[in-house]
Amino acid sequence: MPDTAIAEAPARAATGGNILQVRNLEAWYGESHILHGIDFDVNAGEVVTLLGRNGAGKTTTLKSIMGIIGKRTGSVKFNNQEIIRATSDRIARMGVAFCPEERGIFSSLDVRENLMLPPVVRAGGLPLDQIFELFPNLKERLSSQGTKLSGGEQQMLAIARILRTGASFLMLDEPTEGLAPVIIQQIGHTIARLKKEGFTILLVEQNFRFASTVADRYYVVEHGKIIDGFSNSELAANMDKLHTYLGV
Amino acid sequence: MQALYAQLLVGLINGSFYALLSLGLAVIFGMLNIINFAHGALYMMGAFVAYFLLNLGGINYWWALLLAPIIVGIFGMILERTMLQWLTGLDHLYGLLLTFGIALIVQGVFQNYFGSSGLPYAIPDQLRGGMNLGFMFLPIYRGWVVVFSLAVCLATWFLIEKTQLGAYLRAATENPTLVRAFGINVPRMITLTYGLGVGLAALAGVLSAPINQVRPLMGADLIIVVFAVVVIGGMGSIMGSIITGFALGVIEGLTKYFYPEASNTVVFVLMVLVLLVKPTGLTGRAA
């Protein structure tokens, strides 16, 4: 992993200001009521992690923010603008980027096409040379079919393509799932560098060890509700509780 | 030998129509997942629009080549916005039934006003006559149809396979939800894609008008063969549709020469054989 600093990265966010405010968010898949009133905030420049067991509602929370879930109520404000009724393409154009759990690499597109697919929604996205600094493997595989990449490379591609767009708020859904420890470490370095660059990141993770290396704050999701939240400095004091919540 | 070349030419011309129509079907199936049974009726509308433009507006063939696909394409987009879009996520059968119903209505309306016999549409002056190639006589208009269809097919292939817009279309075929979450207005793109597919059918209709006359059932006669072409090429495969369209036209032409009795069934026999050996079609991918 090269450690060249990303040159002249724009200040995407002054740390501290509230960038995302979620209040009483409820969501349904068909008749199934999944989220039962989620409340949390993300401040600019932070890495916030949603923790929780399988099926707790973490992914649904991200999808609801992104406007992908058809039926949702409550309030989601991004940069003080209400987006609960906005379509996902409009939300993306406001500067929200989503990297799905299943990575969403397109098999009919090669790596270059996958990388260039999301349109630039605003200025300030990483140029390709900086993306290749972060993920040198991708440069060597540009003409390969997207789904022929290894799991780790696909994850890198899934993250890389949203960095181009100029979105300042990234939602990463389980970026380490199914990856080898060395790749997880590389993803961790990348997230740390993105944070340094001023990106705000909302992370969903089951891998608590990984999350603890990058997150500023944590929220615990259970049965479609936020049941606890604490900062990284309070982590040690909350370890027992956390083990109970996560069942580890 | 002259007869063989003549049948080859007829095969290439039929292949041009098969390719243009199956390309439109492949684009629509690939992007919208709709088996568009209205395609033949829309092809017929293209020919009728050219006829109306000439006889009511004095607008010639060359303008009709541009205007008829746009007019019928807009009609197609209205169909997509008002009806087809509500079928998203439902079984293919619903789309098939709806578009079949649309085809019957459109054909019925035209039959009601124009009967079943053909209306004449003259070959434009610039494309009249023929060329003696030594081994055969080539009517210029027929040569033009083959060359122009091939050019349009290749341009469509280039648009879908080699441009950023095409990348959006291919990606939206796989995962429209995610493509939309990247900031792309997928519903609008789907409407435009349907318009493009329908426009290709209308273009084939205009090209066909001087050769086959303008008839309300001209599309109904052709569409079954075109569906066989799409199935053989692989549902949704762009290059597969183009190659198979031309190839099957030629095979049909050759069969007319060597064993005329089988010329109407050879395409379907090939379809059965391909389905037995490769159920996804020659260039199709497994779902």
From TrEMBL, chain B:
It is a multi-pass membrane protein. It is found in: Cell membrane. One of its GO terms (biological process) is amino acid transport. Keywords: Amino-acid transport, Cell membrane, Membrane, Transmembrane, Transmembrane helix, Transport. The chain crosses the membrane at residues 6-27, 34-54, 60-79, 91-110, 141-160, 190-211, 223-251, 258-277. It comes from the Bacteria. GO terms for cellular component: plasma membrane. Pfam families: BPD_transp_2. GO terms for molecular function: transmembrane transporter activity. Belongs to the binding-protein-dependent transport system permease family. LivHM subfamily. PANTHER family: ABC TRANSPORTER ATP-BINDING PROTEIN, BRANCHED-CHAIN AMINO ACID TRANSPORT SYSTEM PERMEASE PROTEIN LIVH. This is ABC transporter permease. It comes from Bradyrhizobium yuanmingense.
